[in-house]
Structure formats: C-alpha cells, structure tokens
Amino acid sequence: MSTLPERREQIRSAHAALIHQVVVACQNPALRPALEDSLRVADANGWGTLVGVIRRILNGQREPGLLAGLDEEDGTIIQSILEGIQNPATLPSGENKADASMAAPGLAGVVLAARRGEPEAIAWLGKMASQMQRAGGDMARMGAALGPLSRGERDPQRLGRGMGALGRSLLRSVLDELAKAEEQ
Asked: Entry's PROSITE patterns (predicted)?
C-alpha cells in the first residue's frame, strides 16, 4: 500500500540492534552466548517464529526459503540479516534506533490511513500496537494510544497517561505529524 511510509526502513531501523547482533554473531561465534540471551527474551515475548529462523541462520542456513511463511516484519528482519551477512554495507544504521523523528511520521501516516478506513493500515496498526504493548513500559503505553489516535483522540494528557519523558516525546512528535497532515 503506497500510503504507508517506508515500512521496510522503519522495521529495519526499529530492529537494527538485533539485526547487527545476529550478523556479528554469525561472523564471530564467541559472541553467540550474548545473542542467545536476547533470543530467549524475544522468544518469551512472542517472537518464537523469528527466533527459530534466526537460530537456523546461526547454524549456517542462508537460503531464501527461510523467508517462507514469515509476516512482513519478521521477513524484513530476516532479509536484512541475510543481506547483512553477504554485504555489511546493507545493514541499517544502529544509531537511529530510538529516533522519534523517524518513527513519528511513519506512525502518523499509518494512524491517518487507518482513520480513513484503509484495511491494510488498520491491520498493520493493530499488529504494531500489539507488538508495542508486549514490549512494556512507554512502548506499551504508546501502543495503547494508537487505537484512540486512529479514532481522532488528540489530547496529549489523556493519550500520554503513565508515559515517561521518552514516551511523551514520541507521542508529541506523532501528534505534531498528525496536525501537519490534517492541515493539508
């Protein structure tokens, strides 16, 4: 769907740390124990399919068939890992992982598309909200705010209830992006 801004790059940016960690562990098996800790946490948080494919990559599998049956997010992560193993220059920048200026326009675009009733945006927003809620903390609170945002709620006090400074910053950025888009 063309109205959703650069979803692949947003996914790559959001998961840059994991992508890098897997590529580095493939190149240096001594770093695998640290990665295994991350994989156990991810598996416990509902990312079992992704973790299973990552473990196959760590065991030497590299074929494109690894992407079969994966959803868009997991597929993008695995494709980024496979590309990064072949050419590290393709890896996403690890420096942007918490940059609200990158996340806010994307979230705002999806919120607006969902508000217009676009089925893919509604499904993507629901999935994103669910994943954010599993992450806990401010991410969970931001995930919980996505539904009300898509229904037109714009009160930062109500939407940001319980958020810390970083969560409120992301929320403010999303609200600013929504305001800009709604003015046009």
From this structure: PROKAR_LIPOPROTEIN
